Fold:
Amino acid sequence: MAIVHTVFFVSRALQLLFAIILLGLCGYLVTDNVIYNQPSQVNFMLFNSVWTLFPAVPFLAYSHRILPARPSSKLIHVAVDAVTMLFWFAGFIALAEWRNNIILCVGKGCGVTVAVIIFGVLEWILFSLTTTLSALDAWQARGKRSPVTTAAPETTTV
Structure:
């Protein structure tokens, strides 16, 4: 069980690190106009990195302290992980397809676009791993009672 927690911790740290890197790369592509006719795929990758940095990874990393340990909270983890994984998959596939259709690509923008695609693939792999581990954890918790016990209501005898 300690190995699973270590894998989660390392993967969440890498997800945050790669999201920060992607935020910088996508911000560079968006603001410096290094790509003529900037595609919406770059904006979507920028959204993915902001989504990963602010709501997704902090929620997934710290919600076990906020939410009670119930199977339903584990399903929420699986859902947030799966949605984020799908966002990254859609983003890097769309950007790679757009990049593939460019006949001649020269300059800094092309290299940065390739870097965004590569880091997007790495984010997708990490979120695939954590989604799988979260789903296995939720599957094992299925049917178990929550460790949170509530006090029985006081009854009076007549």
